[in-house]
Amino acid sequence: xxxxxxxxxxxxxxxxxxxxxLETMPKAGENVVMALDIKGAFxxxxxxxxxxxxxxxxxGKRTHDYLRDFLSNRTATVGLxxxxxxxxxxxxxxxxxxxxxxxVLFNVAMIGLANxxxxxxxxxxxxxxxxxxxxxxxxxxxxxxxxLQEAATCVENYTKEWGLQCSTEKSELLRIGKHPTQAxxxxxxxxxxxxxxxxxxxxxxxxxxxxxxSHTISLxxxxxxxxxxxxxxxx
Length: 235
Description:
The chain has 7 helices and 14 strands.
């Protein structure tokens, strides 16, 4: 897990992908990356999931009780100008917005998922907030598909246990290789086939099936042109 942790950032995830996926290309076949997105993660994660994660950290009674009280019996009002609604109790889900500790609490809720993914042989994963990236580089395409399906099912089951859901619209597959296998790659998530793309975006970086960076260069060129025009207008 990389998000919201000291001395770790998106660059660490991208570096891991570079070393374990882009630099280990087989002469024939491909490495496969699967990018999964958890829908409305911070708003919908159950407080039970957070407390279950806290219970497994051995954080001590004082910290445990503080976090339990922090999440319990929260109230809110709705305001419009000087008008205010009556106070009501919020749902037992979601991390409170605007609090420094909220991202950490979400990480705690996801520890269980990270531990389950570690038990699946032949895959590697990186979790940053609500983005889960999974990849496999060993065996035939059929073996890779089986591993990815097991991982996708693992993520789907875990999220359902704690009131979450994977976004099938934002979940994608990418094959990267010099001479990729022509067979179809099928991984099912939430009852739907995960889309296979020629390029996917992971934490701001575009990965292309060809291993090239032409799309990124094209985007940078367009941005540079736009900035150049703006400078010309004001100079």
